[in-house]
Amino acid sequence: MIRVQTEDFNQQREYDRLREQSSVGAVVTFTGLVRDFNQGEQVASLTLEHYPLMTEKSLAQIVMQAKQRWNILACTLIHRVGELKISEQIVFVGIATAHRQDAFAACEYIMDYLKTEAPFWKKECNSQGTSYWVDARESDRSALNKWS
Amino acid sequence: MINVLFFAQIRDQLGVSGLQLPSAENNDLTTLLKNLKSLDSNYLSVLSKGSLMVAVNQTMQADNVPLYSGDEVAFFPPVTGG
């Protein structure tokens, strides 16, 4: 299941959905949060912009690639957009598999590709009220190397 | 017509979220980008960045591709979600 939404998500509900099948032996989840600092700046809030039609396509593509590589029984990917405050949840990836190795790997793979291929952009606002676009990180791009 | 879209910093720097260009004069991605850069010096500098990313019909493109009427071409900076 893939969702892009402004509203928050409930981890427990998402986890319960992932473990519905009796063949599930492992669930790995990742949650990304808005932290209060970035690139040396004190962050007060964050606004996430996206390219709606392409977001849907690229997230579906990333999940499909993960399903081709690992035996995934259930997968949930949620990404929020709009204005988010410190400590709010931004992104959720949940993977249910028979064995834990597949779930760990698929979760990391989906995050690595989401960070570099899904059309989301962050604009941060600092405590002085100045807003600026967040630069992409080379470390996110180089994280892809381990999957090739 | 080709529907051109700009996102994030690219949109802010150009001051416009998109525009429409005639498809006959923009029959591939390289030509379209060249025509956009020739609009004015701001387009030239914003669209000359090495980090510029481009998607045609919502699929990322790294090379030149042909364009047809009704296509959607989007220009944006490297993504920063997650």
From TrEMBL, chain A:
Catalytic activity: 2 [molybdopterin-synthase sulfur-carrier protein]-C-terminal-Gly-aminoethanethioate + cyclic pyranopterin phosphate + H2O = molybdopterin + 2 [molybdopterin-synthase sulfur-carrier protein]-C-terminal Gly-Gly + 2 H(+)
Family: Belongs to the MoaE family.
EC number(s) recorded for this UniProt protein: 2.8.1.12
Keyword DNA-binding in annotation: no
Protein species of origin: Psychromonas ingrahamii (strain DSM 17664 / CCUG 51855 / 37)
Pathway(s) it belongs to: Cofactor biosynthesis; molybdopterin biosynthesis
Source lineage: Bacteria, Pseudomonadati, Pseudomonadota, Gammaproteobacteria, Alteromonadales
Keywords: Molybdenum cofactor biosynthesis, Transferase
CDD domains given in the database record: MoaE (cd00756)
Gene Ontology biological-process entries: Mo-molybdopterin cofactor biosynthetic process
Classification via InterPro entries: MoaE_sf (IPR036563), Mopterin_biosynth_MoaE (IPR003448)
Protein name: Molybdopterin synthase catalytic subunit
